[in-house]
Amino acid sequence: GAGVSQTPSNKVTEKGKYVELRCDPISGHTALYWYRQSLGQGPEFLIYFQGTGAADDSGLPNDRFFAVRPEGSVSTLKIQRTERGDSAVYLCASSLASYNEQFFGPGTRLTVL
Amino acid sequence: GDSVTQMEGPVTLSEEAFLTINCTYTATGYPSLFWYVQYPGEGLQLLLKATKADDKGSNKGFEATYRKETTSFHLEKGSVQVSDSAVYFCALSDTPGSQGNLIFGKGTKLSVKP
């Protein structure tokens, strides 16, 4: 079956621009997670959805970052006024419920020039 | 806050060598512990996990034992293969009984030569 998919796979933008990153979880998975992985580091937690609601957004670095999951399936991570320090691979994961194995997507590599 | 420290890489071994990748953690509660693997060009995959002290996780010949007294979860394999070449991440979840939000180490790159 289809795994977690993320689009685009690569995104290059200029400082100050707005970007949206999309995650399609595995069908039927109620929990969805966003992580950010900088070069040479492990993934860092950003936000977790259970269904449509953000159950924990404590990892979002500042108010330029926002994520939605309006129908409890696809999620979009939105970054306003991008900065060079936002350059990283953004990973999405989903699980059947919050206590199950997380399945990761291939990531979106964001480069802010 | 909670954190994970794993040995720096890269690690280069010959086929059939013994592998150990060290991982220690800091946590206020009783976390669940995980090893994830990222093969070249692929996404992160769960390799094994342990949810309480003295539990041993195992998969694909890899093992790790949850040691509360030393706050460690070292990854071992008796005989590595070229196909084991990948980046390995140690991780914890401090949400009891669930994966919750994972806290990862920096990763250790393993290269196995034929």
| Assembly category | heterodimer
What's the mean pLDDT score of chain A?
A: 94
Order of helices and strands of chain B: EEEEEEEEEEEE
Backbone CA Rg of chain A:
13 Å
Write down how many β-strands of chain A occur, each being a DSSP E stretch of 2 or more residues. 11
Question: Which structural class fits the helix and strand makeup of chain B?
Answer: mainly beta
Series of secondary-structure elements of chain A, N-terminal to C-terminal? EEEEEEEEEEE
Taken from the alpha-carbon principal axes, the silhouette of chain B is: globular
Can you count the helices of chain B? 0
Q: Which features would summarize this protein structure in a list?
A:
heterodimer, A: 113 residues, mainly beta, seven-stranded mixed sheet, four-stranded antiparallel sheet, globular, B: 114 residues, six-stranded mixed sheet, 12 strands, 0% helix
Description:
The complex is a heterodimer of chains A (113) and B (114). With 113 residues, chain A is mostly beta strands. Chain A contains no helices and eleven strands. Chain A has strands spanning 5-7, 10-13, 19-24, 31-37, 44-50, 53-56, 65-68, 75-79, 88-95, 103-104, 108-112. The relative contact order of chain A is 0.33. The model of chain A has no long low-confidence stretch (mean pLDDT 94). With 114 residues, chain B is mostly beta strands. Chain B has strands at residues 3-6, 11-14, 19-21, 23-26, 32-38, 45-50, 56-59, 62-65, 75-77, 86-93, 102-104, 108-113. In chain B, a hairpin with an 8-residue loop joins strand 10 and strand 11.
